[in-house]
Amino acid sequence: MSTRTITGNLAVDPEVVQAGNIQITKLRVIENTGEYRQGKWHAHPDATTHFVEAKFELGENAAATLHKGDPVIVVGRERTSSWGNEGAKQYGRVIEAENVGVDLNRATAQVHRTAKTDEK
Asked: Which domain holds residue 73?
């Protein structure tokens, strides 16, 4: 799996789903991409949608903090996921988040530290 860093805005509020014994917070990040050509920025006509999953404390904190439209930075490992029935199976790329934060280039934030849990 390769490590990816993306920036963009949340397309919808975070969604928390139960997967066995753990909860996974699912984020959909819209990234406006483009490129420099001859010294000028040319935006691509279509934005890129990234599907992101955050687990454990990271997922809980993302769900409690972030809302639709918030500018975010996500760092994680990218993998391929599949869903649907045989014959109609679909595939997509998912980023398993290692870090999620507010993009301070485009927003301000107040930081509230969470209490550390005892490690055994």
From this structure: 2-102
